[in-house]
Automatic annotation (TrEMBL):
Pfam family, one: Trypsin
Family membership: Belongs to the peptidase S1 family. CLIP subfamily.
Taxonomic source organism: Nephila pilipes
UniProt name for this protein: Clotting factor B
GO biological process, one term: proteolysis
């Protein structure tokens, strides 16, 4: 599907309060998307970020909560953070029906650049965030893309990264690559401050 079609809100709904994709447990809600904003320099491996505006406000409860946005200068190097998603548990398996989480460490971007550039010719830049376990066995996989990497600072969780790409599933020597949300703090604030589409 083209980026143009992906930018049309009619194609998108957001499911909140979801846990088990096979069961209706009560707190799930589906909300229509009213606006889609891709970063102007969006590419599969670069600036892999978009914002969705919902037609109505979410109702927060024990299962649906907000997460903090990081400041532009936020750094998480060395921290152990949590990635979540319904992706595959292993490369040759299906996606999970139940939301899963994994604790991984934020690494220096040079670690990922040294792994990905020689093999795939993908340079790791400042808008990327490198996180994982060098020994492998823990990380994100196909189907987890777009999910959050959450880091806890002073009792609050921040969305430090957005799952972007990797090499297989938790492959040894290849930590996963996330979009570094703090790099886009100004862009996020600018989009959020705009009046709704059609209004001035």
């Amino acid at each position: 599907m083209s980026k143009y079609l992906l930018s049309l809100p009619v194609f998108w709904k957001v499911r909140v309060g979801e846990h088990n994709l096979k069961l209706t447990e009560g707190p799930e809600k589906t909300i229509q998307v009213s606006e889609v904003h891709f970063h102007p320099w969006y590419h599969a491996y670069d600036k892999d970020i978009a914002l969705l505006k919902l037609e109505k406000e979410m109702e927060f409860n024990d299962y649906v909560r907000a997460i903090c946005l990081p400041d532009e200068d936020a750094g998480y190097l060395g921290m152990r953070c949590i990635a979540t998603g319904w992706g595959k548990i292993d490369f040759d398996k299906r996606g999970s029906n139940v939301l899963r989480e994994v604790e991984i460490q934020v690494l220096d971007n040079n670690v990922c650049h040294s792994a990905y550039y020689p093999t795939y010719k993908i340079p790791i830049k400042g808008w990327h965030l490198c996180a994982g376990i060098l020994e492998g066995g823990k990380g994100t996989c196909q189907g987890d893309s777009g999910g959050p990497l959450q880091c806890q600072v002073n009792g609050k969780y921040y969305v430090a990264g957005i799952t972007s790409f990797g090499s297989g599933c938790a492959k040894e020597g290849y930590p996963d690559i996330y979009t570094r949300v703090s790099y886009f703090a100004d862009w996020v604030e600018e989009i959020m401050s705009r009046p709704p589409a059609g209004r001035k």
